[in-house]
Structure formats: C-alpha cells, structure tokens
## 1
Amino acid sequence: MIPSGLFRSAGFRFGLVYAVLLTISAAALASFLWWFTAGLLDRQTASAIRADAQGLIERFDEGGIAGLVGTIEDRLAANVDDDAIYLLVDPGMNRIAGNLDTWPSIVDKPGEWRQFQVRKTGMRSLALVYGYELPDDFHLLVGRDVQVRVQLGNLLTDALIWAIAIVLAMATAGAILVRSLFRRTVANVSATAAAIASGDFAQRVKVSGRGDEFDQLAEVINDMLDRIGRLMDGVRQVSNAIAHDLRTPITRARARLEEAARTAESSAELHAAIDRATVDLDGIVAVFQALLRIAEIEAGSRRSSFRRVDVVTALDAVADLYGAVAEEKGVTLAVSLPRRLEIDGDGALIQQAVANLVDNAVKFSPEHATVRLLAGQQGRRTWISVEDRGPGIPAPDRAKAIERFYRGDAARGTPGSGLGLALVQAVAQLHGGTLRLEDAAPGLRAVLDLPGGEEAGDRPE
Amino acid sequence: MRILVVEDDKDVAGFVVRGLKETGHIVEHADNGRDGLFMAASENFDAIVLDRMLPGGIDGLKILETLRAQKNAVPVMILSALADVDERVKGLKAGGDDYLTKPFAFAELLARVEALGRRGKAEATQTKLVVEDLELDLLSRQVKRANQKIDLQPREFRLLEYLMRHAGQVVTRTMLLEGVWDYHFDPQTNVIDVHVSRLRQKVDKPFPIPLIHTVRYAGYMLRAEAAS
C-alpha cells in the first residue's frame, strides 16, 4: 500500500508520471518490434503456403490428379530448404503423393490452419498446414516446417517480455531518482527562501554549474534577489540621505522663521524672512522630487513606456536649452551629432539625463572654455558624451560621484543638490547601459553608454 | 472667472480659495467628491481645480471621467500629491487639461488656472498676434516692432509666440519649459531666465517701452503698460 501522503508530494507525482510514461513507451516499442519480427515470420509462412496451394490447385484443374502428383514431386525435389510439406490422398485417405506418410488426424476439416508435431526424416519437428478438399473426394495438405521459425518467435517474445520487465525495473529506479532529484533541487531553493525569510539576505540559491533548467531557475531567482537587494540598499541610502542632508535646509528654514517671529521689528523684515524660508522649502521639495524620481526610475516601472526614440532629437532640445546658458557664461557649447540615432528607450529620461550632464559641464567650466556634446554608435551600442574643461573629478572620487548627495570639493559654493549624476546613473541602468566618468585631461568626460542603436549618416555641424 | 475648487484639506483649500478671490475671481468650494461632482455637473464654471484624492467615495478622477462622459468640456486642473509620471499620464488621460503636483506655489496655480480659463476663447485661426506695436506673423514667421523687423531664432520665435498668446497673463517658468521646450522636469539651473533675457535684448532693449515684464515669485508677463 502506498501511503496517501505520497500523492500529495509533487516529487512522487513526477516520478510516477516518469515511470508510467517510460513503461507505456517501452511496451509500445516492444509490441511494434514483435509485430515486425515474430509476427512477420508467421504471416510470411501463411502467405507462402497459400501461394503454394493456389499453384497446386491450378495444376490440378489443368492436368488432373496426374498433373498434380507430378508437380508435387517436382516441388519437393526443388525444395532446397527441405521445409515444404505436401500430402495428396485419395478418397480412401491413402497417400498418392507427398512427404507425409499418413493424413494427420488433427486436420479434420478443410479450410483451417493446424499446427502439429511431425516426424520428418527421423527428426521431430513442428508443422503448420492447411487442408484443401479437391473434386472427387481427393484431399490436399499443404504446409511448412516451422520449427525454426517458432523457436525464433519464442525467443523474440521472451526477449521482449524480459525487456519490458527490465524497463519496469528501470522505470521504478528512475522514478525514485527523479523524485529525489526534484526534492533536492526544490530543497535548495526552499532552503534559500527560508533563510532569506528569516533575515539572512546574503543567502543565494546554489548553482550547480551544469547550465540546465534548474541552474537557469536558480540564476533567475538569484538575479531577482540581487535586484531586491539593490532596491533595499537604495531605500536605505535614500532614508539615510534624507535624514542627513535634508536636516540642514529644514533646520535653516525653521531657524529663520523662529528668529523672525521672535525678533522681527517691521513687517518688511518679517516678509523677507518668510520669503527666504519659502525658498528654502522649495529647495527641499526639489530635492525630494529628485529623490523620488530617481527611485521611480530605479524601480524600473518606466520600462513599460519604452519605445523607439531618436536620441538626436532629444539632444538637440538639450543643446538648444543650454546653448544660451553656456553663452551667457562665456562658454561655448560645441555639438556634433549624427543625423539620426534610434534606440529603444524613454526619450524624456535620456533628455533629462543629458541635460544634467550638460548642466554640470557648463556649471564647472571656466570662462572661454568649450563644452562638447557628442554622440555616436559603435557596434550595437550608442554613446553620448559630454566633455568639459573644468576641474574634473579625481580618479578615486569618481565612483562616489554618482552616489546620491555627493558634492565634490569643486562643487562647494555652486548651486545643486548632488543628485544630478545619481539620476543619470539611474537612467543608464534603466536602459541596461552604464555611466562612465573619465579624465578628459583637463576636465571631465561623462559617457552615457546605452545598448542598441541605429545610426543614419553623419550630420556635419 | 468663475472657478470651482474641489479640495478636502481645509488649509490648502482656504489658501487657494482666498488667493483666487483676492485676484478677482468668483470661487465656489466643495470639500468632498459627491458635492464636487454635483456642483461641477449642475453649474457653469470657467475652470475647476480638482484634488485627486477626496473623501466621500468619489475621487477626483471619477469626477473628471463623469464630467467628460456627459460631454462637459470645462477646463480642469488636477491637483495631486501623486507626482509619478504614470500618475500624471493617468490624470491627463482621464480628461484633465493640466496637472499640478503638491506642494505648489500659489503663483503657479493662478497662472495655470487663468491660462486654462482663457484657453479656447480666442486664437485657433489667428495668423497674427499683436501687442501694442509688436507684431508676430505666424504664417511668414516674421516679427516686427514699430515696423522694424526683428530677427529671431526658431526657439526665440516660439518663446515670444507663447508669451504673446498669453499676453496680459502671468506665465511661469514651468509653463514655458513645458509649452516651448516640451520639457517636463525641473532643470537645476534657471535656463528660462537666460532665454527670456536674450529675447528681451532683441524685443525690448532697442525700444522705449518694455513689453516683457518679470513678475516676482511667479514668472513673466507680456503686456503693454509697466509692471505693477
């Protein structure tokens, strides 16, 4: 008896399905083999006997008994394999021609197959025969010695039965193996999930390295866990950043209001203090919005709004918007873009990312310097680069520069929230690309490297 | 203008209603979805300021969808604390004409509501915009002031066109970013001021009376008389 609990186990069900399927297919294969070997031998013998008899009966119709006797003797003489059996008897059941001595009692009715033991040239053998009734009460028996064929058939049948038995045994063993394999794999995943549920987030599903479906599943799960981990880190970072970096402007605004309430002597002074506090609050709101926007981009939900966009159109708008600002500062914004550069993405986000890069570049450029906005395509990747002649970022600080709220030494005293590059990085990641900061010697080169892209000819600038 | 404000937060509603009244508008207020829908459907307003999240079972989007289903085309400005791009798209898809996220500056709200209220009344088939001695021809894309031709770059032309279409109204920096550059986020540097100042060099500097005025805490306004 199988305990009913076993059926609730998916591993057992998989094993059972495996065993049943294997047995059914093995049985089907065995029957097929039998039909085409042992079965075929039987059918061939029967049809040879029929054809033989047909010829003899025709001879009888043409030449009567004498002709038939001659033919039988001819055929017996020509039978090299010595497996043909003929017997022609008269109405008194006495032998006229053929290689059997007496009419076998087992052949009691004409028109039916019979199989019986014969003694032929001193050897016991098995015969398959068919009886015919001829006119004038003569009888004809045509058959074949099938001893060898029956033995071969039995051998085949035995072999196939054994094969099925072996397959059954292997199916059972296989089922047990499948079940344990299944249990082991699921146990691997469920142990990881349980560890994570109880707080150990560093756990990952073990990958066997075979690259099979279970490995793929494990990798997908691990990727998911990594992503969740990154998002959690992001949330942690944002909350830390909010705690540290928003405290300052909030404190400032609060102090201003409190001081004004306590000490302002005229309504003009009071108004001035309130105005300054409002500006502080607007700054705080702007930081909040930037943080939320980065979080929104990092969550990846905007990927659903991806479509084919022309990067050049977005960059032209940025160049147009910031060209005037650069000019105002005495900085030249040199733009060199191809005619078209299409990728799958979010045009508005790419525009915002590049706007942030150009904004930074213009902000940190000395007078009369040139900021270059370039884009192009290489292999299956699209790059957008913004290069300035500013102070740059020292190599050890470059990784930190893309973190939230990083403000380099050069940035002290300039307006900004320290979120610009973090947003660019988030946009790059959303598109499956990267943001690289390089030394433009002197200055900084920020390269946004995005996958995909089709260029359509250079546009001279 | 006759404006309906549907907003449940007492302080925000009071702030908006008082502000709109001070600037000379007639304001009605509903503090829940059901009253808001009833008033919006039964009375005539020039514009509606609609909060998205409302008590009373009927939220802002529901009101908006019901109004639009009744072929009521009153301009609606959605006010919401939901700032995601998706939320914004949802609001505009439901039939909103503009979307403002909280917190907001009153000047921004006022400028946008007034722009909404006046929209559709004039223009559409206009081919020439005229303010005092400044003329902008939309067909030949030429600008003249006191019969002198002024050369403008395409983007400057669009900036001036936007200001002239809203002549006599306050236009905020965000409205210019969205209307002229189709730019839906806040640039860190005040790029708009630079563009307006360049436009002024060409349109105002050579002439005795300035037309483009800066409105403190709000934005810009193009009009004939001097700014107050």
## 2
Amino acid sequence: MSEVSLPTRKFQKELNAGITSLILLYIVEKSEEPLYGYQIAKKINFENKHGFSMKQSGLYPVLRSLEKNELLESSVEPSVSGPPRRYYCITDTGSKALIKWKEIWSDLRANVDNILEGEKND
Amino acid sequence: MIKTIDDYLIQLKQEMSNCDIATQQDALNDTEEHLSTALSEAFDNNPELPKLELLEQIINEYGSPKETAESYIELADKLDSSTFMGSTSLKAERKTGNFFSIFSDGKAWGAVLYSLLSLATGIIFFTWAVTGIAVSASMMILIIGIPITVAFFLSFRGLSFIEGRIVEGLLGVRMPRRQRYYDSDMKWSQKIKQLLLSKESWFSVIYFIIMLPLGIIYFTLTVTLITVSLALMASPFIAVFVSIPVIDLGTVEWGVPPWFLPFVAVIGFFLLKGSLHLIKKIGAGHGRMAKSFLVTKDK
C-alpha cells in the first residue's frame, strides 16, 4: 500500500466517521439474519474495494455506538470454535434512521459532486 | 513481534492501560472474537500456510494494537459525553440553571430507582450467594458436589453480569458489556479451576453478601427521605382539610401555626433537593464500588 500523507489520513478518518455508521446500518439491515462483527467486516471489504480506507478494528466501536443509540441491538451467542460472538440486528429506530441517512448522503454527495464538477468546468 | 492472538491482546491491553477497564474489556472481547474467527477461517481455507503468516495478514487488515486502542478510546470519549444517563445532568444544568438541575438529572433519578430496587436485588443476591456457598461446601465430600459448585459459580457470574447491566443503566457507570469466556484450548479441569479460584468469582460473592445490608440502608434512606420531604411539602394543602397536631398528649395538642405552614413546605422542598443530591452521591459511590468488585483486571 502506498504511503499516505498525514493530512490525507486525517481527511480520510474524518470522512469515514459518519459514513461507517451509514454503511454498517445498511449492511445489517440488508441481511436477513443477525450478523457478527467479522461477517460485517468481510462484507465491507467486499463491497468497498475502492477508497474505503479503514482498519477492521474501527468497525467494532462504531457498532457499539450504534447499539448505544438504539439503532442496532445485539445478543451474545456461544460459538463452537472460540469465544462467544455478538450478533447485531437493526431496530425500528435504526431502519427509520437509515432511510433519513441515505437521503442525507445522497443530497450531500450530489452537492459535493456539483461543487467539484463545477470547479472543473470553470 | 506478535506471534499469537494472546500476544496481540497483551499489547492491546498495554496500549489501553490508561483507559477505563470496561472499555478495555470491550476491546479485548471484540478483538479476540474477530481474530479467532478470522484465523480459524483462514486456516480452514489455507491449511498449508503457517498460522503465523495467516495471523500477520489478518492483523494487517484488522489494524495494529495501537490503531485498535485509538478507535476504542475515541468511542469511549464520545459515549461518556453523550449517551449515559449522567450526561443529562450537564444539559439539565445549562437549561434550568444550577438550582433546579437536580430535579431533571437522570443520574439522580436513576440512583433513586436503583436504591428502591436494591432491597429486592440485595435479598436475592444474598440468599443465592449464601445458599450457593453453603450447599457447595456441604456437598464437596460427594462427587456430585463438583457439578453443583460449578453450577453455582456460573450462576454467580451470570448474576454479576446482570447487576453490572443494572448499575450501568441506572447509575451510568461503565461496566463490562459481555460475560467472560474461556480459551477454547483450555481443558475442562482448567476451566473449572479457573472458575472456582478466580478473583472475579469470589469478589462477586463478597459483593452479593454485602448487597443485603447495603440494599436495606439504601432503600430505607431513600424511602424515608423522599416520603418526609413530600409530606412536608404537602402539609399546607393537607392542613386546609384536616387538622393534624404535631404533638398530641391527650389533653394538650400543639399544631404548627397556619402562618408557618408555607415555611414547612419550603423546608420540605429543600429536604427533597438535598435528598436527591445525597442519593445521587451514594449512587455514584456505589457504582464505583460495584465496578471494583464486579470488573476485575485479570483477563
């Protein structure tokens, strides 16, 4: 992986902060059954080959934060092969929030694209 | 150099040494869950590759102990300042000023609710702990004593986990979010030994035993203070309908003069305010104590 400068890393980190919550909510909602952290992490790697710069360990605190805000709920189930796993599923509040967040994201993306493309055309 | 998952966990713990114990446990639990699952899957898919190499790849994607620690520390800071019941006190103070803030302080009312519940939970915990220890000790001479003892000690961990959730929910003190587990490579005899000899199990038992007297004290204090405060506050209104003397010696009756009744209500109000402050402080103290007994540092 090529070296990323400190300001770029900071920019990526700040940008990821909100988007991660959106992506996690979406992945958990889309799934028909509750998912545990590793399954979610694998889906993010699969769906975001380009540009989503974040270590997998960063997902777990966000999952806990979403749970604390009652957007996700979790239950701990024993696992045959190792320590128990925490399974997450979305709450009604989470589903409603996700609809709103998708709208916000869509508007924001369109606005940013407009600005950046406008700049190109200038 | 990280050669095993345990090495990673040790480094992660060092990186988080200044952090809250409960957050440390969250991070350790999540990390062990992730690394174990990832390693087991990677090994199933590539049995020819050495585990060390697989672990290196997994850690590269998961993040170094330092990176993991940073993400949890950031989260803990955010949660402390935004989501716990205690945080409402700050908002409440800004809204209504310092004087009335205690009445809209979630932490104070959480502590009141905890104190009222503590009589019931104290009796349950005490009875269960004493029964468990007594039955286990008396059955130890028989072979059946071992499973009974193990069952009781497991139930103590379950109860301490539930108490942790109650303490976190009502008193706003961060407690572990998950029950402890054992290394999958451990033999059964080692697991039983660890369960029976661990500091965590015995501290839970001590906590359950002292919860009975504490529960009685908290409950009595809370009910008495709040009842007396409310009674004093209501006295001017009640006096309109019923005349109840303060001193009644049969022949001599002495009641509060009517002009003094509003002052009695004011005294009641201040007593209620003071009581809420006191109960909140007791709740905070109890939360710290519960944490020191139920969240131990041995991993």
